[in-house]
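for ur thesis appendix - BHLH domain-containing protein. copy paste whatever u need, i formatted it the way the template wanted (i think)
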Amino acid sequence: MSSASSNNNCSSNSFPDDDEELNEQLRTLLSLVPDVAQTDPISILEKTRDYLRRIHEETERLEQEIRSQPHHLENLNQRSIANSSSRRQLQILRVETDKIGGKREFVVKILWKRLGPGAAAEVQRAIEFCHLNVKSSSILVPSFLHPDEMQTTAFVKVKKKKNMTEKELCDLFLSRFPS
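the 3d part is after this line
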């Protein structure tokens, strides 16, 4: 008899936990699904079903729309690549180099004008191309009157085991941006 009563207690204890878990899940649905006016479980589940059906239909419609236009998007992408490769994204206005610390450590200040997207990346690639170990680099707008003019300041160390003068570093950098 004691085993039956303990077995009975076990199963009756699981119902409140199940109810609490179900209520928690319903509260979650209520917070996620818009425009649920009634808070009874059936209304919440029906609104959730309708909401998911609308999302599914919209997803299918958008996927079909995308499939019907790949040629157009491909042409735009090719045109963008052609334009970006034929036109420089920035104009170098001034380069200053100052030796700091050791024989191969410099601060490089590059004043440049942004002519298109990707200009900052182009400056960074040029710095890395010059075989420099970049310790830190920052970009700022020196004047709010000229928001397209940027200044990159980089603290660098020459990777090669040779000494380099400030002028040599400046010339090396400018060679990456022929006029």
